[in-house]
Specification:
GO cellular component, one term: membrane
Number of helices: 1
CATH architecture: Sandwich
CATH topology: Jelly Rolls
InterPro entries: Emp24-like, GOLD_dom
Oligomer: single chain
Structural class: mainly beta
Subcellular location: Membrane
Pfam family, one: EMP24_GP25L
Protein name: Transmembrane emp24 domain-containing protein p24delta9
Number of strands: 8
Shape: elongated
Number of domains: 1
Radius of gyration: 21 Å
Amino acid sequence: MIMNKKMMIGVVAGVILNLGFLLGGVQSIRFELESGHTKCIAEDIKADSMTVGKYSVVNPNDGYPIPDSHKVTVRVTSAYGNNYHYADLVDSGQFAFPAAEAGDYMACFWVVYHKPPLTLTIDLDWKTGVAAKDWSNVAKKGQVDVSF
């Protein structure tokens, strides 16, 4: 079967659109944070949706431990101010919770002031809804033993 150019464009557009829906609840970013400052990232989450996240400070000196000057404080809160995660002076961490209420959830990162100022690089991977599901534990066809 020969596909013309319009059909091929339609197929490609459909694939891209479907991928957009599947990946809509995934936010993976790398950002910089200057010491003495705060940076917050918001995610609009539906009520009763599962949320998982992990974050880490990028080590400026590969092969050596992360220095104490590169520790961050992290807080995740709901739109109503309810706390879901708090970690003080860490270089990495993770959080997971079912969202009790719908709205913008905020993950805020801050670093104490240093003189001279430092700039930290932070990786954040935040998933919600279907994207937060651990699909590796879902039974595949042929793995289910049915007995009566």
